Amino acid sequence: MSLASIDPLYHHGVTGVVLLIVLVRVVVGFAVLMGSVTLMIWFERKAISDMQSRIGPQRWGPFGILQTLADGIKLFFKEDLIPAEANRFVFKLAPYLSLVPALVTFSIVPVGGTLTIAGHPVMLQIANPPVGILVMLAMSGISVYGVMLAGWASGSKYPLLSSVRASAQMISYEAALGITIVTVILVTGSLSTHNIVTSQADGIWHWNVIRLGVVPFVVFWMAITAELNRPPFDVVEAESELVGGFNTEYSSLRFALFYLAEFMNTITMSAIIVTLFFGGPAGWVPPVSHLRWVFPIIWFVAKTVFFCWCFIWFRAALPRFRYDQVMDLGWKRLIPLSLGWMLVVAGFLIKPAWGLVMAAVVLMASVALATAFERGVAREGGPRSVLAPVGRRPLPGEVLRASSDEVEQ
Amino acid sequence: MAVTYALASEAVFASAAVLILAGAVAVITVKNPVHAAISLITTLFGVAVAFVAQSADFLAAVQIIVYAGAIVVLFLFVIMFLGVDRTRVVSLEPLIGQRALAAVGVAITVAGLVALMWRSHWVTGAPSVSGHPLASGAGNVHQLGTAVFTTYLFAFEATAALLVIAVVGAVLLARREPSEEGSPS
Question: Quick one: A332 and A361 in the same domain?
Fold first, then answer.
């Protein structure tokens, strides 16, 4: 396998300078990601408190921007507890299993264009593996273990329930996630994130969000929110049902690692959304040659921050799904929708006529599927789940009125 | 240059082999089923590294996504649900003569492997020995796709049908008729 096909940096062989550039790229990427995680935690707390008419962190640094650092120091000095019932080895292993995938996924995100440093073309992304976006799928598959093993190893009931929920949820939504990524790969004709970005570089009409119709993007967005276990899909950490979820028994630095991984994943997945559907660093560049390399980075950061903000907005605005609703949405809605849309996109890529044929077939199939769902529900005797639908339960007001009516009689 | 590259690829092979073997030995020797599942992940990762070394990048990615990311998760899921996540007494023999038969099976397999290695060269190793050279990068996926959807189309579709039948069968077996429990309202 020739290295030059992966990265133009290796065109003239692997010399000391090239190795140094690679090393610097990795270290800078790591540092920037860590720095942005602290900012992200502050940003989330500040934005949420604004939306809830609170002040939020304000003590440390201007606008409380150093709050995360203070929290980190506090967690560092806390006592590290391991429950007596815990499986010690797995308990210690789990936080790393959720942190490392979050770090690795970011390495395939193209942050900007290509720079020329010391005569070497340097891509502004840590790695450009030939399997590209599949690395992200693989890593999200691995990050399930962090949550799952943490819950199991705690040796406690609520974390175990949480980890079972987490693994079911993440596996369910991975299918929809994979299928929408396939539509992106179909139009790009390549797995590499660099090619995915360059194929969208010719203006806003070439961005995948528009080119593929908005549906794959929406499905991807919902699926990725579920993968992140962020609200409204945070049944894993539903504090009214499960205390604190999978990390109930964790304290000190191990808890900090989970916290770090969660926010790092939020940033990384926002960056992945931007890469797949919004052209990555694509955008207007001024006709000044010295600023040519800065603007792509600014565009990338702006788009990523927007999606980070959207995740915060979801958390503030949307109530949590019930667990059976999460499963229904994943299996009965998102997977058929993304699968049908993928077939239509594939048809249009061959010939518009085939696209129309596929659209008709998909339409008929979805009617058949909807009928099947309806029949199934009718056979079960109404929409019956483990929990009765909230709408049918008597509201507290009605109960009070009924009891007071009885007293009057 | 060529020498350094060969050295690097040998180092990669050695570390992958260590990962695979250590994981595999741990899967059968460790007493706790969850630890065994984690060791299985180690083995699968080692196999993925070996795939990359053979320039089968796509297979490596699929190996992680499907085996490590989904199948072992399901194993763990079942282990946790059935509550067999405790160390078991292994001195009992559920089937009489099981151990002896297993020993005979192992002996036959090892003898077969030794005979294979005696008569022919190593199958793994340099990419030129292991079959057609694979195109690197995206060509890899192209090659695989062409093979699956032209030469081996029938086998591929038959596998897909088998999997669907298995899923439908599993759902049917797991299903309980709602009328048995009485009407809900």
Answer: no
Strand partners, A114: A123
How far is it, in rounded angstroms, from Cα A358 to Cα B114? Answer: 54
Taking only the tens place, the pLDDT of each residue in A72-105 is 888 888 888 888 878 888 888 888 888 898 888 8
The pTM (predicted TM-score) of the whole model is: 0.82
Kindly report the CATH class assigned to B1-88: mainly alpha
Statement to judge: residues A268 and A141 lie in one domain: yes
User: With an 8 Å Cβ cutoff, are B35 and A89 in contact?
Assistant: yes
Instruction: Please state, in angstroms and rounded to a whole number, the distance separating the CA atoms of residues A225 and A35.
Output: 22
Q: How far is B99 from chain A (nearest CA, A)?
A: 30
Question: With bands split at pLDDT 50, 70 and 90, how would you rate the model's confidence at A323?
Answer: confident
Interchain CB distance below 8 Å, B69 and A160: no
Domain that holds residue A155: 71-113+135-338
Question: Residues with Cβ < 8 Å from A147, sequence gap 6 or more?
Answer: A94, A98, A162, A163, A166, A167, A170, A229, A236, A246
B3-29 residue pLDDT tens: 556 677 788 888 899 999 999 999 988
Of B32, B80, B138, the CB nearest to A160: B80
Under an 8 A CB cutoff, do A152 and B80 touch? yes
Distance between B55 CA and the closest CA of chain A, angstroms? 6
Measured between CB atoms, does B163 come within 8 Å of chain A?
A: no
Which among B64, B71, B164 is the top mutation candidate for probing chain A, defined by the most A β-carbons within 10 Å of its own β-carbon? Answer: B64
Domain ranges (residues) in chain B: 1-88, 97-131, 135-178
Same domain, A314 and A198: yes
Residue B70: which of A89, A130, A141 has the nearest Cβ?
A141
The predicted complex's ipTM stands at: 0.75
| Window B:58-77, CB contacts with A under 8 Å | 58, 60-62, 64-65, 68-70, 73-74, 76-77
Render pLDDT for A157-206 as a digit per residue (tens, 0 to 9). Answer: 888 888 888 888 888 888 889 899 999 988 888 888 888 888 888 878 88
